[in-house]
Design goal:
9 helices; single chain; two-stranded antiparallel ribbon; about 70% helix
Amino acid sequence: MAVMPILIVPIVTTFIVSMIYVYALIGPIGMFMQWMINALSGLQGGSALFIGLIVGAMAAVDMGGPINKTATGFTLALMAEGIYGPNGAYRIAVAIPPLGLALSTFISRKKWEAADRNMGVSAAFMGLIGITEGAIPFAVKGLKTVLPSIIIGSAIGAGLGMVHGVECMVPHGGLIVLPAVSQAPFWYAVDMLIGTLVTAACLHFLRPDIEQPADAKPKSNP
């Protein structure tokens, strides 16, 4: 039946997953979240840095996928408890993958094909408004170099954000939300820049130069 994969299967699977969540997972998840809230309330120094590194890595590892959304849910739950630091760190991290890739296409032009360099412009705009998915087209073509680079950059940016006490009041990221950064807005921008530079530097060292095709080499005059 044509309706099965379009209507029946999504409804049945959604119902099953919802029941598993409500009756099996919500208790342990609630306990874990409460423990995290209690722990984060007294975070300082190295502990704050560790949380920032984890949140930043989760933001980048699947570029808007389930792990990224798990980090989103975690920071939103903490915001409901009046804890805004992890959200500030996370909102730094989500912008770094597309911004780092865009910067890399600009300063490391020998590492990217012409089509990739053109995508860098749109990636830059997506990074400025906090859309991590702008990194996906690059990751699809070069996962081995792109993924570790964006994870490292995002983790460092978010870790620094936690150390500097950045707090963001809205559930969105990128420089577009800078007016909503209630604590340390200067460091919000600086830490995002540092993460972007780290990502671009990693890409520069990890990616090989693009080999020019034989017919693209200049011909010698007869």
